[in-house]
Design a protein that fits this description.
- This protein is α/β, with parallel strands linked by helices.
- The chain has one domain (about 5-90, about 125-185).
- It is about 20% helix and about 20% strand.
- It has helices spanning about 25-30, 35, 105-110, 115-125, 125-130, 135-140, and strands at about 15-20, 40-45, 65-70, 75-80, 145-150, 175, 185.
- The protein has a seven-stranded mixed β-sheet, covered by helices on one side.
- It is globular, with a radius of gyration of 17 Å.
- It comes from Phycomyces blakesleeanus (strain ATCC 8743b / DSM 1359 / FGSC 10004 / NBRC 33097 / NRRL 1555).
Length: about 190
């Protein structure tokens, strides 16, 4: 493991994980230096169950930036808290909105999928289907980075409307629309934008 004070750190260009489960505890996920966590990217696709497990024994979110890809292939980046280096956790699995084979984005893509992949879509629950490597590959290949969400704590990554995560009191939140960088949104009730 690369340590925070290692001379090899300047040669470390980055680490990218796809569908990685929770590892370590909260202390582990904050122990790395900012220089190192800025080079770690933890990808989570829509309702992938593996990125939310295990939920027992105080396992916590992996260190680094959360890259959330939704079913429409919209990509949102959630860097760690700039003050505490705490990573942004993935939201819980959503059973409210249509997902899996009932999702209209998935239905549009069915014609381009192999017959075996279509069988898997019907045979497995949506939270397991979202862990397939092809979902990550296609999401990154055809997706667009729309938002970079920077927060000083208390949010979860991956909500459809990221503005609703800050309507709760005492949340510091700053969103940058990457498609239209002129529209910076500061959603901080008491603190300045980060």
């Amino acid at each position: 493991m690369l340590q925070s004070k290692s001379p090899l750190l300047e040669h470390f260009s980055g680490m990218y994980t796809y569908g990685q489960p929770k590892i370590g505890d909260a202390k582990f996920s904050r122990i790395f230096s900012t220089q190192l966590t800025n080079k770690i990217f933890h990808h989570a696709y829509n309702n992938d169950i593996v990125t939310r497990t295990p939920s027992w024994f105080h396992y916590d979110t992996p260190p680094g930036t959360l890259v959330f890809i939704d079913s429409a292939y919209n990509i949102t980046l959630y860097p760690p808290n700039p003050y505490t280096n705490e990573p942004v956790p993935v939201r819980p699995i959503s059973f409210v909105h249509l997902s899996g084979i009932l999702n209209h984005y998935v239905i549009k893509r069915l014609s381009g999928e192999t017959w075996i992949r279509i069988i898997f879509r019907f045979a497995f629950p949506f939270c397991l289907n979202d862990h397939f490597p092809s979902e990550y590959c296609e999401g990154l290949r055809h997706g667009t980075v729309n938002w970079v969400i920077m927060a000083a704590g208390g949010i979860q990554g991956g909500y459809r409307d990221d503005k609703r995560t800050v309507n709760r009191p005492r949340k510091s939140f700053s969103a940058v629309n990457v498609q239209n960088s002129a529209s910076n949104i500061n959603m901080s009730p008491r603190e300045p934008a980060l």
